[in-house]
Amino acid sequence: MTATAEAPAEIGAVETFEVTLRVKRQNPEGNDAHGPGEEYWEEFQLTCLATDRVLDALHQIKWNVDGTLNFRRSCAHGVCGSDAMRINAKNRLACSTLLKDLNPARPITVEPIAGLPVLKDLIVDMEPFFASYREIMPFLMTTGPTPERERLQSPEDRERFDDTTKCILCAACTTACPVFWTDGQYFGPQAIVGAHRFIFDSRDEGQWERLEILNDRAGVWKCRTAFNCTEACPRGIEVTKAISEVKHALNTGEV
User: Do 88 and 186 fall within a single domain?
Assistant: First the structure.
């Protein structure tokens, strides 16, 4: 099926171009042409602005062509991480990916992130992902009296884990990992990144508990250093490096 949406030929000085968006779809209830849960591709012919992102194209479909298309989005500024999806076979944020950077002369493919159950169209069940995140206890663990003001820390101590504080829980790294796709027990890169953020925080006292969790058969030793996670991270976190540092802490007993 091919659907078409038209936009104004020109808005101000911004030029337009034609785009074909191929969206992988799935409806758990089925429809007239496809059975319940059956995957299929649907193409949409769109007229887009040179400044449009993939999210803008999806909005154009949702609002003007087919209101049954389902996808997650919230802030639309690369902060919430809710619109992670596979675009041209790579995990990206739809709100941060410009159509003009994707060779729009060819069809642009959009599909749900891999390794998590698909609920409908581009929406996946994030619960397995968040379950792994909760398991590494992603909160500051301290003993003793609560200070009257903030817990102070030197710039050098803060810098030690600064990179992994950038995580927005989009699941792009975890769902780009081939081990996560094939191993139902692996925590996945993001859970290790979430643990790293606290393991190397000088104010935290729960690092050894987290390291013990990650030393389990579902933990860091499952990583095969494919670097897919680092490449997929929309925030530029050196995910593979963080995993390596957790491995080093386990091997040496030093944090």
Answer: no
Number of domains present in the structure of the chain = 2
The 10s digit of each residue's pLDDT in 87-109 is 999 999 999 999 999 998 999 99
Contact between 233 and 242 (Cβ < 8 Å): no
Measuring CA to CA, which residue among 108, 70, 71, 113 is closest to residue 91?
113
Q: Are 161 and 196 a contacting pair, CB within 8 Å?
A: yes
**CA distance linking residue 194 with residue 156, whole number of Å:** 20
Residue 2's pLDDT is 58
End position of a domain, from candidates 97, 124, 151: 124
207 shares a domain with 172: yes
Q: Which residue has the tokens 């809710």?
A: 82
**H/E element holding 179?**
helix 178-182
Report yes or no: 196 and 246 within 8 Å, Cβ to Cβ: yes
The tokens for 25 are 């779809």
Give residue 153's domain range: 127-252
